[in-house]
Amino acid sequence: MAAMGFSQPRPPVKRQPKKIFIQRDYSRGTACRFQTEFPKELQGKIDEEAFVRTIESINTIFDEAEALNCGAYSEGCLFCLTGYTLHFCYKTNYERAVETIARYIESQNQRVYAEKGITLGDPMDRGLRCIEVVIDPDATAIEA
Questions:
Q1: Is the CB of residue 46 less than 8 Å from the CB of residue 144?
Q2: What SS3 string covers 40-103?
Q3: Helix H or strand E encompassing 76
Q4: Nearest residue to 96 via CA among 130, 72, 131
Q5: How far apart are CA 71 and CA 96, in angstroms?
Q6: Which residues contact 13 (CB under 8 A, 6 or more apart)?
Q7: What is the pLDDT of residues 121-133, one digit of tens each?
Q8: Cβ atoms of residues 115 and 96 within 8 Å
Q9: Closest-CA residue to 52 (of 39, 34, 38)
Q10: pLDDT value, residue 9
Q11: CA–CA separation, 7 vs 9, rounded Å?
Q12: Which is the most buried residue in 2, 18, 66, 105, by most CB within 10 A?
């Protein structure tokens, strides 16, 4: 039993990280693209140019993956001719692009965002609907 006038020390309260979502951009049709508008929640935390460059790079990789070219048609024909059993030993161009995006986001998180307490999520984790951005509330802001 605690003596009168003394209270038990409380454990420090851990603040919950804030999550924001970068939505899909349908202004150019239904191709997989994300909005490059800089979220106001990130102002003062990261450089706007670095963020926009990251999103534009992701959009470029998706544009290349969805491009209709000779390789894409050949790939489709080969899969059809093999009864789609080629999927067991060969990744499609789109699958390779999705893996490239995952690696790119991971490298950007390590090189640019982690030191500022921000983590970008893989858009595949949310069904290509949005990119999750997690902001650590205890992280420091960028120098002005």
A1: no
A2: HHHCCCCCHHHHHHHHHHHHHHHHHHCCCCHHHHHHHHHHHHCCCHHHHCCCCHHHHHHHHHHH
A3: helix 70-81
A4: 72
A5: 14
A6: none
A7: 999 999 999 999 9
A8: no
A9: 38
A10: 74
A11: 6
A12: 105
130 bridge partner residues: 23
Would you place residue 77 in the very low, low, confident or very high pLDDT band (cuts 50, 70, 90)? Answer: very high
Burial 88-118 (b: 16+ CB within 10 A, else e): eeeeebeeebbeebeebbeebbeebbeebbb
pLDDT at 137: 83
Residue 135 parent element (H or E): strand 130-135
Q: Which of 40, 34, 29, 27 is nearest to 53 (CA)?
A: 34
Other CB atoms within a 10 A radius of the CB of residue 133 amount to 21
CB-based burial label for 120 (10 Å; 0-12, 13-18, 19+) = buried
Using 50, 70 and 90 to split pLDDT, how confident is the model at 13?
Answer: low
Token look-up 């790079």 returns 57
User: Which pair of tokens denotes residue 56?
Assistant: 């534009």
Q: How far apart are CA 84 and CA 95, in angstroms?
A: 15
Q: Which helix (H) or strand (E) holds 108?
A: helix 93-108
Two tokens at 61?
A: 């990789």
